[in-house]
Amino acid sequence: MVRELPVRIVEDPSRGFTALPQRALVAPDLVLALDLLGDDRIQVRMYGSAVPVIGSEHRVVLHRRPGEIRGVAGRLRHLWKRELIDLQPLDGRGRPARGRAVLPYASQLDLTGEPADELATVLAELADQGAHLLFGLLLASDGREDVERFRGVLLSVLAGPPLRIRVDSELLLPWGMLALPRRDGKDGELSALFHRFLGYGHQIEQASPNYTKAPEGLWPPPRIPSVSLNHDTTIDPTGRTRAGEVAAALAKNTSFTERTTRAALLRALEDGTLDEQLMYFWCHGNFRSDDGQTSCLVVRLTDGGEIDAYTVAARPVSGDEPEAFRPLVLLNACYAGLSAGADLAYLGRALIERGARGVIGPQIEMPQVFAAEYALAFVTRYLEGHRTAGAIAHELARHFADAYGNPLGFAYGLHGGMDERLERG
Q1: pLDDT tens digits, residue range 96-130?
Q2: Is the torsion defined by CA of 355, 347, 305, 233 positive or negative?
Q3: Which of 223, 275, 233 has its CA nearest to residue 254?
């Protein structure tokens, strides 16, 4: 008996002729891939146009425990908080020094008025520790010639002209806060110290082999940029920061959405209509541990409802159409970086797996004054639509260091989205 079988079209072969053309993507100058080979080995691979050609990719297998590397990376983040942000100058009697601001490196954007030798001492320590993590621990040669050769090539590449670098790995490190080793022991000047940090020298994005991009051309860009502000209105009630100017910049000549509650955000995720190009979070965050070992980033808006990676990942999408979720996310939350034992399924990754083009946020507990300044500078530049997220992040890292003597721009990490740019239809 003849009967008609149900047919469901899973691929449209004509889309290549009817959809908008894909944007041309330029390969990174350098790709570092860190492959975790069990609990005690890490394979590091290196390739790209900036790397000397040897007929194959450069690779080396290191006898290192990923857990140890994560722990030292967590220590480096805490060191930035303790030695820089929480630094309180004292007088000879151990009391706060007269004439100095309370927590000057946290309460001020411009650090050029602070003693240069004091800041240089702090920066030297942070740079030395960042260099130790990369070259003294992860890539320690231990007398092996293959590791020494790999180290030498990587060091030569990183010490050269500015590069676009992608790091493919499940091992999340604060790459912008890592540094080059001292050169001839002469790094006393602030400019020389800033140049040691990878965040000053290069555009860097952290990626993952599991990240997938939404198909290009599926949703054409809107004529008016679509943006949102997801925030806790109780932060900075006295207006010490420029958070109000960030909100105004987001709302100027855009299709603007403001959310202050967990319920509003979840409704937008559920109905599948959250088609935004820039999604900004200004909120508190903390790491919550449910099993006593791993911890997961949790952020809260005005209503205090918890939003974490699993909140986003478990949220179903109504309807049969593909979800129109493709924003670049600026996650400006205290503790928005990973702690030493943080679960890799943190909020930023969940947003990327949902479809976000990239996530940028601080990898340490960021002072509110600097966080708002960074957001204002980033948002205004990104909304112009001329530069990529990676180029802007790199420009800001250098700008805050050169103009204000402030290294905190190195502590903002970009997860994917290095080549993402706001487009208009």
Answers
A1: 888 888 899 999 999 999 999 999 999 999 999 99
A2: negative
A3: 223
